[in-house]
Design a protein that fits this description.
Length: about 180
């Protein structure tokens, strides 16, 4: 009987501790749930384009979970899930030369291009929610919604924007030192 009581007490304490961790989301727990890789590239390219490094990290996590070899069914590649045509345009606009699609698997190049693209979207839209919507659904859709005075029309894009904004807060709090805050 004592053994069963001890086991039940242990399980109650362990369950309580787990519940506490899940409810309070301490930074150490968030760092386990939401890893950060390539922080040097994130910091450098975010700073270069006046972006919040936590936003760049959040986009990367949402797009690829920091998998540099990620490839979507639509052909988007790498950490920030850039399409080859978008990346080729970025390379031309940033005076890059000899762009190859395989460059998008290189974390430094992918983050550099992705950060440039986010900054370009900020110049066009000036609003983080619209920037994220355009990153996810495309500028044509966002332009059409704005022209018609509509909010974000795609439920999956609304969810994407909310998720990235949540992840931005997580990365800012959990990885502040690594992201240069």
């Amino acid at each position: 009987m004592r053994r069963i009581g001890a086991i039940l007490l242990f399980l109650a304490l362990a369950g309580g501790a787990l519940l506490y961790v899940v409810k309070t989301n301490p930074p150490w727990f968030e760092r386990i749930r939401y890893p950060l890789h390539y922080s040097q590239y994130v910091r450098v390219h975010a700073r270069e384009h006046n972006l919040d490094p936590a936003l760049v990290a959040a986009v990367i996590y949402q797009e690829s979970k920091f998998r540099s070899d990620a490839k979507s069914s639509s052909g988007a590649i790498g950490l920030m899930q850039l399409t080859p045509s978008t990346a080729r345009g970025i390379a031309v606009r940033t005076h890059g030369s000899k762009f190859q699609t395989s460059d998008l698997y290189n974390p430094e190049i992918n983050i550099r291009y992705g950060a440039w693209y986010l900054a370009d979207l900020f110049q066009k839209y000036g609003n983080e929610r619209l920037v994220l919507a355009a990153y996810n659904a495309g500028q044509g859709n966002v332009d059409r919604w704005r022209a018609n005075g509509q909010p974000i029309q795609f439920p999956e894009t609304r969810a994407y924007v909310q998720r990235v904004e949540h992840l931005q807060r997580v990365y800012r709090d959990a990885w502040a030192k690594q992201l240069g805050y």
